């Protein structure tokens, strides 16, 4: 029975490692395409050519052109770059704020914990997408307002996980011994708290990035997110939908790009294969 358990555990670990490797490779390829295309192509994503509308993919335009004759290869790269930049900024901001406040709540005075717990409860009283919609309506089409709104929601997950882990470790004999020996807060964080928190951040960051991208696309889908002529995946889906019968490849491209970037984040988070 012990050998069987070890074998199953090893298989499970191998599945997670393979999943993360596939997610990392896929995400890297998408990043290379999104960030290298502007450097390698002189084509402007907003440049229109009304004589070449809805053209099929060819040697000059690898993904064809849209209903305004704009190059889809360049526009899709712009849309992916915008989504990936939003995801990176939101994950970084949310992680820094959430981890910092989580450790303060777990190790600080009780009133700090109660105050922060009340703030998170207040934010969670509204559905996340509704709160983002409210912020988006204040300054329509603002990338930075969307960034603030999404980060305001996502830091809570980092906060709750960090607080739970830190509260458990803070009562351990190892931490108590370090305190008795006179070690400061930074040493406790580096030696005891961070090694336990860091593995969880990979999963939180991966799913948080996917969530940020989907939120941004959802807002574009209802015309309250990024505004034309900027390229954004959700907005592109709405713009191309009327042409699904004449140019189905045009609608498929942002849908596939959105699915691939979300899939790469989920795989990177270590989701097991069934």
UniProtKB/TrEMBL annotation:
The keyword Membrane applies. GO terms for molecular function: dipeptide transmembrane transporter activity. It is found in: Cell membrane. Keywords: Cell membrane, Membrane, Transmembrane, Transmembrane helix, Transport. Its main location: membrane. It is a multi-pass membrane protein. Residues 80-269 form the ABC transmembrane type-1 domain. The chain crosses the membrane at residues 82-106, 118-138, 144-161, 201-226, 249-269. PROSITE patterns: ABC_TM1 (PS50928). SUPFAM superfamilies: MetI-like (SSF161098). CDD domains: TM_PBP2 (cd06261). GO terms for cellular component: plasma membrane. InterPro entries: BP-dependent_transpt_permease, MetI-like, MetI-like_sf. Belongs to the binding-protein-dependent transport system permease family. This is Peptide/nickel transport system permease protein. The lineage of its organism: Bacteria, Pseudomonadati, Pseudomonadota, Gammaproteobacteria, Oceanospirillales.
